[in-house]
Amino acid sequence: MDNWKTHDAMEAIAIISMASRFPGVKNVDEFWQNLRDGVESISLIGEQEEIKL
Description:
Elements: H1 3-11, H2 28-37
């Protein structure tokens, strides 16, 4: 294999599947859209608020 082909193969990244929970979005597609558009989704919670997982 040529050197440049080896380098390209080593630099390749593939995201096959993704699932998670993110603040302020309903699904992964909305998360990526917000990330692309620069939408801030972080919210701060106070001491009295309960974190529900």
